[in-house]
Amino acid sequence: MRNPLLAILGAGIITQTSNCPDLPAEATGLPTVGNSPCTGCGRCAENCPTKAITVTCDEHGPVVALDRGRCLGCQVCVTGCPAQTLVEDRTTRTATRTRDALIVTNRPTKGQPDSSDRAPFRRSLHVREVSTGDNAGDLEVLASTNAIFDVARFGIHFVASPRFADALLVTGPVGKGMREALLRCYEAMAEPRLVIAVGTDAISGGLHRDGYAEANGVTDLLPIAAYIPGAPPHPWSIIHGITLAMGRDC
After folding, report:
1. Are the C-beta atoms of 190 and 56 separated by less than 8 Å?
2. Residue pair 64/105 in contact by the 8 Å Cβ criterion
């Protein structure tokens, strides 16, 4: 039988040393609004399955707005944009502190707010995850704890009970059947406490939005400290979002 210690020593260090690097070649990034002027054709808005894109006009011409909180990353808008106004974003630093910051446009936008109010969690954070029906998102959260990403080195630890947690990590669209359980979990946490929405489903409901299950995400139910877009988000994006909620940036 192979010696486990020798196997570990022989494998060397596999943890990524650079924080939040760009996506690898095999991964697909979220779309963003590039520098090319929009023609106003509206194809992107017509083809988007979650209505994440709107195209309007102002005195300067066509205005395209992409709501990453609804975006699935399907790339239909990127491949179908004749002007290449919508392009692929390879960064993993996609999380935001506000819902409005998830909307990217070809017009100037405001920066994110100060995070000094989250100072108690700057050094460490205990997290309780609640899945309301997003297995893909759950797997990416799990991947963030493996040896490659090693979320624990940032002082982030997952706990089994909300009574021991500083933050509630929510995945899934939060249908009616999970709403009470989620709220009870939040109420069991001590103050101060944070809520982090992981994935398009948790932010807006995604494809489930406005359906019979009223699965429109957690945004309107609880105060959110960080929004992590993607369907599902990359583990580095999850780590980036958690550190933002802590009051720092990985």
Report:
1. no
2. yes
Q: Is the four-CA dihedral 194, 108, 89, 199 of positive or negative sign?
A: positive
- Least Cα distance to 230 among 145, 167, 151, 141 occurs for 141
**Domains and their CATH numbers in the chain:** 31-92 (3.30.70.20), 116-246 (3.40.50.12280)
**Pick from 213, 245, 38, 4: which is nearest to 127 by CA?**
245
Write down the residue that tokens 């520098």 correspond to: 35
Question: What is the pairing mode between strands 61-67 and 103-105?
Answer: antiparallel
Q: pTM for this structure?
A: 0.92
- Whether 5 has a pLDDT exceeding 90, the answer reads no
d(CA 233, CA 241): 10
Interval 12-40: pLDDT, tens: 778 998 999 999 988 899 999 999 999 99
Contact of 68 with 109, CB cutoff 8 Å: no
Q: What is the DSSP string of 34-67?
A: -SSPP----HHHHH-TT--EEEEEETTEEEEEEE
